[in-house]
Batch of 2 targets.
Target 1
Amino acid sequence: MKAVKKAALIILVFAALIIGASSLVITQENEYSLIRQFGKIDHVVADAGISFKIPFIQSVDKLPKQVLLYDLPSSDVITSDKKTMICDSYILWQITDPLKFAQTLNSSITNAEGRLDAIVYNSTKNVISSTSQDDVISGRDGQLSTAIISNIGTSLDQYGITLLSFETKKLDLPSDNKAAVYERMISERDNIAATYTAEGSSEAQIIRNTTDKEVTVLLSEADKEAAILVAEGEAEYMRILSEAYNDPSKQEFYSFVRSLDALKASMKGNRKTVILSPDSPIAQIFYGAQ
């Protein structure tokens, strides 16, 4: 009898452990816990920790809470000028309403990626189809991503999904016309550079002409001032010379000095001997000096 009671107690303990374990719900930081009752979602546990459910009646499904990456398949898109481009991109997305996600997509990540693929591709096609090829290439970094996310808008809200980022890995031309497009773009850039160079040369010539004119005016004024100063100096020299010659006490001295200057000028090269006649003005000075 004691053995039966002991066995029954052990069975009760195991049953209690099993029931207790099946009633516990452990939710991690990076997940949602969906509590289902008879197949329908009863409630969602979004906070990390331990919660409880009704054992054997309620079940638990898990959904990821962290940011997810989906690599979109490469696809052809056509620009507004009817040029084909190949878009290779990826998106970052997150489940923000697990109840809607479970109800509309059957809690399936694969189903969600299929919807994302279709919606993002259609948005990419719409944005690029309204943009020229040159603008698509030049604005691939930030403008294109912003335009595509804006075009998607709130269409993913119905699935409990939030699109966090759209990034382009490669937005390229088909290999058959890539070289031709690059050559055309290079030619256009060369034309722009030539225009800037011509405008710069024209401005430089205008500056040079203006500077040359100013220099000519300044030199002319400087020559004029120099001529005036020279004339004034010569006039002053002549005045001083005239006053000297009008002074009887100085006339003989200046005549003597000028005669010496004339004699010095006549002695050129190695000729150091001068023969003067007695009636020469220079000789008269020397005779008068004796």
Target 2
Amino acid sequence: MELQSIYVLWLRDLKRYVRARSRIIGSLGMPIFFLAFFGMGFRRVEIPSLPSNLTYIDFLAPGIVSMVVLFTSTFSGISIVWDRQFGFLREIMVAPISRTTIALGRTLGGATTALMQGLIMVVLSFFIGFKPSMGGLLLAFVFMFLIAIAFTGIGIAISTFMHDIHGFQIVINFFVFPIFLLSGALFPISELPEFVAMLALLDPLTYGVDGMRWAMIGYSEFNPIYDFLVLLVFCIAIIVVSAYLFNKTEVE
């Protein structure tokens, strides 16, 4: 019963994603511009900490893919706020399933849509000049999935405190941009000022970006195993926290 409920909630989110073509296209607009204009604008810039045979667009692309996954997964929490406003969440809550099951189903649904958006961005980046290791794409997929799970969980945790869609969007925008900019997606962590670099080490996305970059182009600033373990522990912790907060949420 519980597994079937998780599947139904996951399938609902997936169907909503597939039917919302404007959402799919619109959410890729800004990342494509980031990749195209940053990649072309800094293509001749030499960054001391990067290997000489590594182009900036190859360095940048994994970070932009992580940006797509980050934004899509975090914003997936808006569906819970939407369901609360229109009464659907109340109907789910009275179903004979645990709230933890509901939280897991919504987490998997949001993470799957974020993962699909990330894979689309990977394909589009090929046309802009990105040349990843094809053998490493499977490992990159693992890191993308962990990023999606972690930040979908964060989106759900934040949604438990929100009752207004516009307020949720403002809070999320305030939250995700510092996470993205501190993650080393645009520039190496080693090139940042010491204080900013220390903040970057507290950013879970930093380890996701670094792991994806290692898988795709063979370059990383940390040990990839360390990246994986940090991200995995963070995923487990945020799933526990989001499920706890969802269990405590009140539905009017």
